[in-house]
Amino acid sequence: MTAPIIKVKRLAYVRVSAPDLDQAEKFLDKFGLKVAVRLGDTIYLRGCDPYPPCYVLSQGVSGVTAIAFEADDIGDLEKIAALDGSSAIEALDGPAGGQVVRLKDPMGMQVEIVYGQTSLEAVEGAVPHRFNMDGERRREGELPAGQRGPSHVKRLGHLVLESADPRSVYHWYHEHFGLKKADEVHLPEGDAVMIFSSLDRGREFVDHHVVGFQFAVDEGTRVQHMAFEVGNLDDLMGGHEHLKRERYKHVWGIGRHRLGGQIFDYWANPWGVIHEHWTDTDLVNEDHVPSDTLPGEFEDYWGPAPSPRFLVSRWNLKAVRNLLRLFRASKSV
Ligand SMILES: [Fe+2]
Q1: Fewest Cβ atoms nearer than 10 Å: which of 180, 198, 311, 320?
Q2: Cα of 294 from ligand 1 centre, angstroms
């Protein structure tokens, strides 16, 4: 594998379009994102952490239209801009300024590499909660301080790209942006089912995965879900009850993943686009040794099995055939 052209620093934002902006904004409000600014017909939403907006919402056909990473310096943008098919370096839209270069990944997804955005002021997040557990008393004389309402989203943490050939898409992201395999699940014959990748920041500990490259059983291409860190377990559970009361569609959870280690809870917006709340992910650095497993070799630490809606983004004959293939592989373990 060749050396990466650059090594990105952070997943910066997603651009999402929805047919009805009011309905989309209402869902995101109940999910726990906050409007940073509206510029024309575009709404820039943020988490509580002091990052620039992580969710850029505009009107259109439902789906994710672009994903963005932050680069370390302007030199990295110049390296990407020099590639065939890349845009020139341009001014970035939105309230945080900065510059951007755009290119297409092998799935046809627009990828934006940004630099020079200004931070925002942090806003108040979830109240920290100490547990009297594991034989230790950390909450002596303190009452739980959580309030009913949406979770407090801190930041965008990761997303999953679905395609018919996740291994070659992963290689492209590795070669261009330095994303590094964290763990892999594959069929006995070698075809990848899921490749988790993390940022490559050397000794610095980073989230177990920033992008997951998943086999799409319908053999389509899309962002299968995007995932946002919330304050803590009570904040996640409170947000779950809030979305349930608001009658949004629950997709999968609550559980703790084996690969990644995070406590997860998946919800769909009114058009079926999956948004994850998570807390307490595994953190890895250059010492992490990726695992190689077959489907069915591992189970989540706890929680329900994946729902059909999570496994299948769109039903077609290929989805049925590939599900059977995955099922047989998991039973052979
Ligand atoms: Fe996820």
Answers
A1: 320
A2: 19
